[in-house]
What we know:
Blueprint: E1 12-15, H1 21-32, E2 36-41, H2 44-56, E3 61-65, H3 71-85, E4 90-93, H4 111-138, E5 142-147, H5 151-154, H6 158-176, E6 182-189, H7 195-200, H8 203-213, H9 222-233, E7 244-247
Parallel strand pairs: 1-2, 1-4, 2-3, 4-5, 5-6, 6-7
Amino acid sequence: MNDIDVDLSGKVAFITGAGMGFGRRMAYRFAKAGAAIAVTDIDLGRAEAAAAAIREQNGKAVAIQLDVADETAVVPAVAQAVEALGGIDILVNNAGKHLMKYNKPFGDLPTHEIRALFDVNMMGVIFCTLAVKETMRQRGGGAIINISSIAGFGSKNAYGVSKLAVRGLTIAFAQELAEDKIRVNAIAPGLIATEQALEEMPDAMVRSLVDDMQVIHRLGDMDDIANMALFLVSPAASFITGETMKVAGGYPLAI
Ligand SMILES: NC(=O)c1ccc[n+]([C@@H]2O[C@H](COP(=O)([O-])OP(=O)(O)OC[C@H]3O[C@@H](n4cnc5c(N)ncnc54)[C@H](O)[C@@H]3O)[C@@H](O)[C@H]2O)c1
């Protein structure tokens, strides 16, 4: 796969759930493009390992422990990143509860699990977005990427509705933050080959998605998501806000 060539020198990116999966890949790719990274994750050990890997490649990164659902922890985590790295230009709201456990009808999930899902996937986006607004405004603007899902188009179950909410938040915050020159967009990944997704999804489900539902018959790669994220935060996307970009091999194509 060809990498997109974006220069993020002098920029600071705050990425949630960046200890593994897409978040970590975006952290690595943004660092390679020149950005300093606040690698945040609920699991500090994972965040520290990812930040250390960036520093080993001569990049700049700090690890910060953050559960995005914990309202009281978000503002201090953002302050810690600003103190360490000077400010924030890019926020990636990536942390999410997902996979098979939440791909269920509401009636099949205990209410405390539904609440936990929405606390992370929806409230987490709201808390982090509001917390970075002021530092971005002070720096003359910024870019926010929310990670939705192709499931946020079908909206068939609890997870899908939480990701539909992420699309709605993207539209709302694009309008709310435009006056501060902050663009807000979302990415809706299809099935992407992360360690966790492949481990959890039955082979037959993976095959049916790739062979029958996508029109590009290969598994998505984490770099497919990182490339879209790099484009969306770059000046080349300066006229794009409030959009959700599907990165899903053509599933589902609809008007
Ligand atoms: N993998 C896919 O195919 C796929 C498809 C569509 C959308 N997504 C979305 O992409 C995002 C990342 O998915 P992934 O597959 O890379 O996940 P992952 O499970 O591989 O990694 C998630 C990371 O987030 C961290 N995390 C979990 N809860 C957190 C919380 N409350 N606060 C902060 N960090 C937390 C975990 O410790 C972990 O490091 C999620 O929002 C997910 O819904 C994934």
